[in-house]
Specification:
alpha+beta, six-stranded antiparallel sheet, five-stranded antiparallel sheet, about 20% strand, binds adenosine-5'-diphosphate
Length: about 575
């Protein structure tokens, strides 16, 4: 071939190859260029795994049909095929062809006929080399033996080299596209799983859990339908919990509750713990005698058992519109979703159990508070007329009855205090303690204390002294009086028969009240606890009481915005201090 034509061919081949990444089209174009002067037959074979014959062109248009047919006969054994000589050598070679060679490579009689009908007497083969590696071969042939010039060999080598670059580019492009697609799929998968996890955080009820798994995890991953069915405890049945993509009438009808041993995949998975993947209808039919019920329009199915701590609780069923070969990745994703589903279901169950227990406990507490409230109210009602009657009696009765009536009055008063405390506790429990503040002076309340506790103080041998002066502010008088009385009554009760000192003073904007005794004292570990409801640091045999006085006192003081504290050492007495803001 003369030089100008060769250059033209190369230029044209370069153009065709650079034009598109569609290998079949470009190779057909280059093959056609090769048969317009350089050769009578041109063939491109590529090796990737097997051998692919991508183009065959012939110079003689009458042979075009045969050339087409020849495309269907790529070299069978690439390693030994004469056409691969160039590949093995890593450079262009020429081969003289005889009939024996044609017979040795022909797949069948038809192939041999085609080979014999084409001008294949002398071949020039050029490997498609990229980075020292042959991607295929360009085979040129002529009907006459011999006659390939060194220029022809060079030219064929050059065309093949350019073709090789085109193949390489196309493959890199394909690989890049595939990688991109895989990355995108992975991203979508991650997003889907994130959305499932996010959805599950808010799902506190089993049905919500199942719905999140189905709608966020499965349907976007091309499932056409999915359902969660749970084993009914104590029964040999499974029941539909939630579904997506299936007919409501079927799910609420025949599929609502089915026997655990019904021969369908979802019951099988729930019963045996086996994951069942069915790629098409034949696979379903070969394993299950009942035809698909909910997923009757679908063509492949997956069911995965759901277990919590090794105990099977049901199964997750998924179906797809098309037949599907389940990959390892599909399997892993389904297993992952199933275990997420099982865990979330467990959490939901625990949550509802805890919720129910808490509601029951709260109801019990409330019932007790209400009972206390009603009972103490009822107990108090007859006490008021009783005190009045005792007062009248005392005035009019003969002198010798006075001491007895006085005792009865004191006991009634004690009873009133106890019942009032109970009533207060129930009010506090129900959150209904209300203050009735008014401007007042604390000093008269303090001054009245020795007289009020004169009987107890005499009996215990604890003289009560008071110190202080007028101190005005805005408080709930009866409530504050109750606090002072509680503290003084404790000081006398636990004061071991020694003097009790009461003080009232002002410290800035705070009114301070203290009661100090020299009695049994309180261990450091009990000093906080005794302010709790029904909390006591003494035995009931030694000292009577309900353990409510300090609790109520602290609540009253706190309601006034103040605080109550104690300083004490066992055996050395106790000092309680109340600090109240003036208003
Ligand atoms: P009660 O006196 O009815 O038991 P309180 O709530 O008034 O109930 O007191 C709670 C507990 O605090 C008492 O049981 C006692 O152990 C302890 N306590 C209260 N005041 C004193 C005190 N002045 N000295 C020693 N212990 C006290």
């Amino acid at each position: 071939m003369f030089e100008a034509a060769a250059l033209a061919l190369l230029a044209e081949a370069g153009r065709v190859l650079g034009e598109s990444l569609d290998l079949s089209a470009t190779f057909a174009g280059v093959a056609r260029l090769c048969v317009s002067g350089l050769a009578e037959v041109a063939i491109f074979d590529l090796v990737d795994g097997g051998t692919r014959r991508v183009a065959v062109a012939v110079a003689n248009p009458e042979l075009a049909a045969l050339a087409d047919e020849l495309r269907g006969y790529p070299p069978r054994d690439w390693k030994t095929h004469p056409l691969a000589a160039a590949v093995r050598a890593g450079r262009s070679v020429t081969v003289e062809v005889d009939d024996a060679m044609l017979q040795s490579v022909a797949h069948d009689q038809r192939h041999l006929t085609i080979l014999r009908s084409l001008p294949i007497a002398s071949m020039l083969e050029a490997p498609l080399l990229v980075r020292g590696h042959a991607l295929g071969v360009l085979s040129l042939s002529r009907g006459q033996r011999g006659g390939w010039t060194p220029d022809d060999v060079l030219l064929a080598g050059e065309v093949a080299r350019r073709a090789a670059v085109a193949v390489d580019n196309a493959r890199l492009f394909e690989a890049e596209q595939r990688a991109r697609q895989r990355a995108e799929e992975a991203r979508q998968r991650t997003l889907r799983l994130l959305s499932v996890t996010e959805g599950l955080e808010g799902a506190l009820e089993p049905r919500q859990v199942a719905t999140v798994i189905l709608q966020r995890g499965l349907v976007p991953a091309d499932a056409a339908g999915a359902a969660v069915m749970l084993i009914e405890p104590g029964a040999n049945m499974i029941q539909a919990l939630a579904w997506a993509g299936y007919d409501e009438a079927v799910m609420k009808g025949p599929l609502w509750r089915i026997p655990l041993d019904l021969p369908v995949p979802i019951a099988h998975a729930a019963r045996t713990g086996e994951t069942v993947l069915l790629s098409n209808r034949e696979e379903w039919a070969s394993r299950f005698t009942i035809t698909p019920i909910a997923a009757s329009q679908h063509n492949s199915w997956a069911t995965i058992p759901l277990s919590i701590a090794g105990r099977r609780i049901g199964a997750l069923g998924v179906s797809y519109a098309n037949e599907r070969v389940f990959t390892t990745e599909d399997r892993e994703i389904l297993q992952g979703l199933a275990s997420q589903c099982a865990q979330a279901l467990q959490r939901a169950q625990l949550f509802s159990a805890e919720h129910a227990a808490r509601a029951a406990a709260e109801a019990a507490v409330r019932a007790r508070e209400e009972f206390l409230s009603i009972a103490s109210h009822e107990l108090r009602t007859p006490l008021t007329p009783l005190t009045l009657q005792l007062g009248v009696l005392r005035k009019n009765a003969p002198a010798e009855l006075s001491p007895g009536i006085e005792t009865a009055q004191r006991q009634t008063e004690r009873l009133i205090r106890l019942v009032s405390n109970l009533l207060d506790v129930s009010r506090l429990g129900l959150g209904t303690l209300q203050l009735d503040r008014a401007p007042m002076d604390l000093w008269p309340l303090v001054q009245a204390l020795p007289e009020r506790f004169s009987y107890e103080s005499r009996r215990q041998g604890c003289p009560i002294s008071v110190e202080g002066g007028p101190l005005e502010g805005s408080w709930d008088g009866p409530r504050i009086e109750q606090v002072f009385a509680n503290l003084v009554s404790n000081a006398v009760k636990y004061g071991s028969g020694r003097p009790v000192q009461v003080k009232l003073w002002r410290d800035g904007e705070t009114a301070c009240f203290s009661v100090a005794d020299q009695g049994i004292g309180i261990a450091a570990g009990d000093q906080e606890r005794i302010f709790g409801r029904f909390e006591r640091a003494v035995s009931a045999q030694q000292f009577g009481g309900l353990g409510l006085g300090l609790y109520i006192s602290r609540e009253i003081v706190a309601a006034h915005g103040g605080r109550i504290s104690v300083q004490s050492e066992p055996g050395k007495g106790a000092t309680f201090v109340v600090a109240l803001p003036l208003s």
